[in-house]
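Bumping my old thread because nobody answered last time. Still need a sequence for this structure:
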């Protein structure tokens, strides 16, 4: 690990783990750390990976088998062997020469938290226990962004990407980064979190996370702290404040992970695809600089090194047999997702893409036993 205490950082193409000295820490009180890689100093990729979420005594209890979030950031998050945008030896990768900073979520609050809370939950013998959780994801992410700004001050071409839990706050951080790099061209992609258009199911989470405390600290977002909160309004406000930036959303139509978390929030038998379309309609009705790409299937996420197993086909992908890296092989309505992402990274205007057969994934490759 390397502790960051200044803007001095050895130029190296290797991934390094950074512990910022000004970060509040992960949910369990352990040190927050992130991953970084130095390459072209004028190009910067800021990545928010997934990591789950929690919002109650039961869901935040790491001893509960149903708890599904990362409560610490560890060396296991090393992206060196990952695919997708981390496959830096792939000539098709649009980010292969970018400097990277990868900011994990380890507070259960999808990087939208500024609160310390004591939860209470029952244990097996029927008694109750109390434990404390640091919902301080905003402070951790900001410590990483401040480090990136001091380490890569001359970045002129910036891409912000997030998936799953990391996709949710990515429009907010795109706005923050755009304000800090006033002369840079900025692009944004959120992957796999567009279906959380709900009624009041998120109210408890926003309250426990302290999300209103976050918005009070971000110029332009202050008024969101006073009304009803939704993930979609983060898109709307970020797009309104940054009319020169297009905000982009990827989804897989019947994403089982989004269905899982919707059920955990109390939504019975959620129709993820319908919720994705409802959420996107709401955003499009309020801003014009929002673009979407929806692929078919039930899997989760595309860009961060996610694979589909393809049995009975002698394929090789990133050194792994019988799998396809979704970033390099998925398509929707005849448009490869990689082609779409390449245009986004190049700050070009892209069309909205919607799957034709949304029940099944579609690939750009032809299998050997197909005509």
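Sorry it took so long. Here it is:
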């Amino acid at each position: 690990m390397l502790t960051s205490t200044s803007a001095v950082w050895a130029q190296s193409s290797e991934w390094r783990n950074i512990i910022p000295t000004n970060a509040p820490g992960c949910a369990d009180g352990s040190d927050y750390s992130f991953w970084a890689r130095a390459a072209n100093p004028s190009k910067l990729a800021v990545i928010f990976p997934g990591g789950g979420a929690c919002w109650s005594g039961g869901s935040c209890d790491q001893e509960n088998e149903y708890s599904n979030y990362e409560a610490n950031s560890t060396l296991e998050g090393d992206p060196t062997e990952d695919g997708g945008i981390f496959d830096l030896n792939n000539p098709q990768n649009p980010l292969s020469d970018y400097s990277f900073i990868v900011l994990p979520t380890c507070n259960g609050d999808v990087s939208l938290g500024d609160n310390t809370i004591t939860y209470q939950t029952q244990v097996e013998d029927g008694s109750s226990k109390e434990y404390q959780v640091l919902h301080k994801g905003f402070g951790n992410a900001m410590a990483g962004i401040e480090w990136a700004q001091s380490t890569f001050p001359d970045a002129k071409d910036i891409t912000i990407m997030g998936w799953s839990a990391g996709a949710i706050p990515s429009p907010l951080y795109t706005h923050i980064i755009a304000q800090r790099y006033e002369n840079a061209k900025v692009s944004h992609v959120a992957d796999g979190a567009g279906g959380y258009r709900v009624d009041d199911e998120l109210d408890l989470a926003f309250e426990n996370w302290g999300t209103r405390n976050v918005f009070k600290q971000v110029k332009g977002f202050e008024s969101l702290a006073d009304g009803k909160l939704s993930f979609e309004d983060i898109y709307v406000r970020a797009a309104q404040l940054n009319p020169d930036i297009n905000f982009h959303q990827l989804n897989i139509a019947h994403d089982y992970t989004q269905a899982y978390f919707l059920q955990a929030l109390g939504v019975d038998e959620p129709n993820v695809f319908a919720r994705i379309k409802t959420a996107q309609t709401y955003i499009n009705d309020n801003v014009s600089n929002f673009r979407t790409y929806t692929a078919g299937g039930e899997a989760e996420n595309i860009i961060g090194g996610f694979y589909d197993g393809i049995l009975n086909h002698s394929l090789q992908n990133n050194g792994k047999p019988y799998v396809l890296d979704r970033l390099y092989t998925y398509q929707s309505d005849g448009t490869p997702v990689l082609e779409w992402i390449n245009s986004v990274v190049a700050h070009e205007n892209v069309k909205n893409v919607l799957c034709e057969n949304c029940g099944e994934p579609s690939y750009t490759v032809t299998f050997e036993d197909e005509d």
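The CA atoms of residues 6 and 145 lie 13 Å apart. Let me know if any region looks off to you.
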